[in-house]
Amino acid sequence: MTIEIVTPDTTIFTGEITLAQLPGLNGSFEIMHNHAPLISVLKKGRIKLIDPQKQVKYFDVNGGVVEVLKNKILVLAE
Description:
CATH topology: ATP Synthase, domain 1
Strand content: over 45%
Number of strands: 7
CATH superfamily: F0F1 ATP synthase delta/epsilon subunit, N-terminal
CATH architecture: Sandwich
Distance between the termini: 23 Å
């Protein structure tokens, strides 16, 4: 599945991942391959990504919105 993390200024990350962990308003949640469609609000926290080579990447955000549709994740981050 692919993910794109963008801010008003730039694209922070684009790539293939196997898992995304996001800071939701009511707690963190994970998205994996074939996840159901979803739109959610994010709070300030850390996004954790695991790529196909099992490498872990972290990105700090001050909130935002995430959309999941057909194995594509779009994060509009602050």
